[in-house]
């Protein structure tokens, strides 16, 4: 690790002691993973296409969740059960969606991010 990176990482860790609301998401992700977030650009045609497709996938996933149902004792557990519906919807509409690939090449379904998908432009995207 170089010195500048170490200082930035230390700054992120110090800020993590404060409420996360004060830390920009891109810094949290970079501090934890070492990878930068490429921001969504509402003027970019590729980003617009992804957003339109994600809206369709969300509607399809919601429809399928409502048809099948999810029963969990705690509301925060529902997210785990929704992931397969979201992956199926993304795959149905033409994206290649699965659990994210780890650095060692395996797939990891627990942790962050929850879903990795390839968009129509061949870009890898992540959903949390």
Describe this structure in words.
This protein is mainly alpha-helical and 128 residues long. It has 2 domains: 1-37, no CATH class; 41-127, no CATH class. 48% of the residues lie in helices and 9% in strands. The chain has a 3-stranded antiparallel beta sheet, with helices on one face. Helix 1 (3-15) crosses helix 2 and helix 3 crosses helix 4 (78-92). The two termini are 28 Å apart. The mean pLDDT is 85.
Q: Can you give the mean pLDDT? A: 85
String of helices and strands: HHHHEEE
Distance between the termini: 28 Å
Characterize the biggest β-sheet: 3 strands, antiparallel
Work out the helicity level. 40-55%
Give the structural class. Answer: mainly alpha
Share of β-strand residues: 5-15%
Number of strand segments = 3
Rg result:
17 Å
Number of domains: 2
| Spatial strand sequence of the major β-sheet | 1-2-3
| Poorly predicted residue ranges | none
Shape: globular
**Count of discrete alpha- or pi-helical segments spanning 4 or more residues:** 4
Give the helices and strands, then pairings:
Elements: H1 3-15, H2 25-33, H3 45-68, H4 78-92, E1 96-98, E2 115-118, E3 124-127
Antiparallel strand pairs: 1-2, 2-3
Condensed summary:
It is built from four helices and three strands; from the N terminus they run ααααβββ. By secondary structure, the protein is mostly helical.
């Amino acid at each position: 690790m170089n010195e500048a990176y170490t200082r930035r990482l230390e700054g992120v860790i110090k800020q993590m002691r404060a409420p996360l609301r004060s830390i920009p998401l891109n810094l949290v992700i970079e501090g934890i993973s070492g990878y930068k977030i490429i921001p969504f650009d509402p003027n970019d045609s590729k980003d617009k296409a992804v957003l339109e497709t994600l809206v369709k996938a969300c509607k399809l996933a919601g429809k399928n969740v409502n048809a099948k149902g999810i029963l969990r004792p705690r509301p925060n557990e529902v997210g785990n059960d929704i992931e397969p519906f979201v992956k199926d919807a993304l795959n149905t509409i033409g994206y290649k969606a699965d659990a994210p690939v780890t650095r060692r090449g395996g797939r990891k379904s627990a942790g962050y991010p929850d879903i990795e998908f390839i968009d129509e432009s061949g870009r890898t995207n992540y959903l949390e």
